[in-house]
Design a protein that fits this description.
Number of domains: 1
Order of helices and strands: HHHHHHHHH
Strand content: under 5%
Largest sheet: none
């Protein structure tokens, strides 16, 4: 196991991961579209469905990617995977006992959230393609922590109830930790850093204003 990670090791890990989990990439996009649809249209049980999608993405990223694939290559990934699973459990509580209400509204918070979601689902892979991270050496939406974190902040900006602080701690740490992949050459993760810092600041400001 290595303590230091190289870009080559990271891209090789993504390649093995993408090839082994196909067609989960398609399913992840379907789930993402469902979550956005439910946030905008707000049908019955929309909050539980959205939290369920977020929970699945964090749980899969923690176990499927970090523990099973990244861990054997990069020793700290086991710790990162455990924290990702902890975050998934926190979101899972929101499936059975919703504490937030999702819904798109024509304000700066929802619009920014929708921009984050668009970045995670569309801009992120397109940027990766032009940078040279072409499938299967690309970061799949909804199945690795970086785009999942951006997507999560996007949805959390679309809530009309206060976001529990516990929901923000680990995603913010992941966003700040984006400095490492950016330094290795995963420059699309600049959006991860921006979404985490800006998203957390906006959510805290919005929730304090409501109080």
């Amino acid at each position: 196991m290595d303590i230091l990670l190289t870009l080559e090791q990271l891209l090789d890990t993504f390649e093995r991961y993408n090839l082994d989990i196909w067609p989960m990439q398609i399913i992840a996009y379907i789930l993402g579209i469902i979550a956005v649809f439910f946030a905008i249209k707000r049908p019955r049980y929309s909050d539980r469905v959205i939290m369920g999608v977020i929970t699945f993405m964090w749980l899969w990223s923690g176990i499927g990617f970090y523990l099973l694939y990244a861990g054997p290559v990069y020793k700290p990934a086991y710790i990162l995977g455990a924290l990702t699973v902890v975050q998934a459990v926190l979101f899972l509580v929101g499936v059975f006992k919703p504490v937030m209400s999702f819904g798109f509204r024509l304000n700066i918070f929802s619009v920014t959230g929708l921009l984050f979601i668009t970045y995670a689902m569309i801009v992120y892979p397109v940027l990766g393609y032009f940078i040279g991270h072409v499938y299967p050496q690309s970061l799949p939406f909804g199945l690795v922590p970086c785009p999942v974190t951006i997507f999560t902040f996007g949805l959390l900006l679309m809530t009309d109830k206060k976001v529990p602080v516990l929901y923000l701690i680990i995603p913010l740490l992941w966003a700040i930790g984006g400095i490492m992949p950016v330094s290795l050459g995963i420059t699309e993760d600049i959006g991860l850093i921006i979404s985490g810092v800006l998203g957390t600041a906006m959510i805290i400001y919005r929730d304090r204003k409501k109080s």
